[in-house]
Amino acid sequence: MLKDGPATARPPITHWPIPALDGVDFDPVLADLMQAGPVTRIKLPNGSGWAWLVCRYEDVRMVANDPRFSRKLVVDHDVTRLAPHFIPAPGAAGFEDPPDHTRLRRTVAAAFTTNGVERLRARAMEMLDALVVGILRDGPPVDLTERLLAPFPLAVVCELMGVPEEDRPMVHEWTTLILSSAMGAERSEHAKNDMCAYLGGRMREGGVAGSDSIIGLLVKAIEAGEVTEEEATGVALLIQIGGEAVTNNVGNMVYILLTRPDLMEQMRSTPGLRPSALNELLRYIPHRNAVGLSRVATEDVIVAGQLIRAGEAIYVSYLAANRDADVFPDPHELHLDRSPNPHVSFGYGPHYCPGSMLARLESELLVDALLDRFEDLRFSVPASELKWRRGALIRGPVGLPVAWS
Length: 405
Hints:
Shape: globular
Strand order of the largest sheet: 1-2-3-9-6-4
Order of helices and strands: EHEEHEHHEHHHHHHHHHEEEEHHEE
Number of helices: 15
Distance between the termini: 70 Å
Low-confidence stretches: none
Strand content: 5-15%
Number of strands: 11
Mean pLDDT: 91
Helix content: 40-55%
Radius of gyration: 21 Å
């Protein structure tokens, strides 16, 4: 038993109201929490009680990779959280621990290998070209979010999933409702149920079992007895929802480049700089509001000198880890040639984002298209008039009205 001391003394609880932020400004509450210490305590707008927050890079990676912190236990705890709704699908991989989590991810791993993603490149470029040609034909001004940044990632993830084109607007609407609290918890719950019913129905249909789509891979796994239909539906839901995060992430990148023309010119004039520049933008942009999914300690664990007791909830902040000055010198500045750049924007450990290579491919193609095919790209309204998503789990601009020469 630990005696009272530094490990058992508890920091005060910080109420984190999640301010409505515009642009890519770093959350000021998170900045204060980072200054307060490597391990603090927070209370978010919804759920009950408080939770630990870990901000330092090495501690974030340690917690994210430590089997003593469970995602599965979160389902049974009303952990303090950002969203008013808490709607994981039964058997969702995001709320499982190894070995079940490993088993579920293995069913779709073939689609997310380097070769699997590269096989999609030609089709993705074809779909992107069709969108760009239509925008150039119609001429400025256009809303880049509406015409490019939303439809392209949706088309790519649906292509990977095996969702037919005529169903994609409906799937997109469900995703938007699930990822936002703006319409209320009940609407989000209905959207989740509707999407699960749809995905389950697609898996029960004939004709997809032999395909290499995500749905096809899951059908094979069900038939082989590797997963249940409920588990497969949960996996499909997670991938479909996650696939549209690229819209907001690239929206944030475009906002930075259009408000920092010096950076845009560097990337336009020096194509060889683009891979490291994209990596740096991924490190820098605000991927989300507040924090993501929590974990619950299965036993007493000391993190950065602080005792986390069994049964207590803990969050890691990948946003804070990406601004750790011990790992990223001058962390609040964009250095397009930053190297090394071991950011954790796609997470870390068992729950590392399975679609990270796909997200990188989509981001690369979108940024290349904007740099190479739109001369003198600029906002068609003052940047101060742009609107930003409210009540969303993922930060990003509502629209990006632009013009070009």
